[in-house]
Amino acid sequence: MSGQDTAITEVTVLLAAAHAGDPGAWDRIYARLYRDFHRIAQAQVRRYGDRAFSPTSLVSEAWLRLAGSAAAASNRQHLTALLARAMRYALLDEARQRLADKRGGRDAAGALEDAAGVASPLTQLLALDQALDRLTALDARLGRVVELRYFGGCGEEEIARLHAVDVRTVRRDWRRARAFLLRQLGDTDLAI
Fold first, then answer.
1. Does residue 191 lie in a domain region?
2. What are the beta bridge partners of residue 119?
3. Do the domain assignments include residue 17?
4. How far apart are CA 34 and CA 192, in angstroms?
5. Where is each RNA polymerase sigma-70 ECF-like HTH domain found (predicted)?
6. What is the per-residue pLDDT across 124-135, written as a single tens digit (0 to 9) for each?
7. CB 84 within 8 A of CB 66
């Protein structure tokens, strides 16, 4: 059994313990997965600039959001999918708040775009979210692939395991989803 398989099994056992009422199981799950979650959060923070969350605060915020739905997680992959969604919504709420602050005059810049007319990373995040919602309405699996890869930092193999499909299917789904999002977003600096 590989190290990753051992970690997956360990988290699945801890999830079963949490479901059985072990009060310390969630703390052990958090401790076991914190480094992975922090790595994902670092990528998100780099993507949206240093004014958004710190990686540590993003992990904490996402974990708190996850508290209600984490009980439904049956394995590590499912928990990772739930965390990806929690990070997505934490980032979106932060983006909305910052943009509302700009519109309210509390930010000297006061505009959604910089002087060159380029949309800010936070504005691009909101546009991506809207495009992702449209994609999910058309094909839910494509939407989940984007959410797991883009917001959850999952690789193709992990997404394939989570969806019980072949890696080639995930690659094909990613290409279709990415093409759709790029068409929806038009000219953007957002790396998809």
1. no
2. 113
3. yes
4. 25
5. 9-185
6. 889 999 999 999
7. no
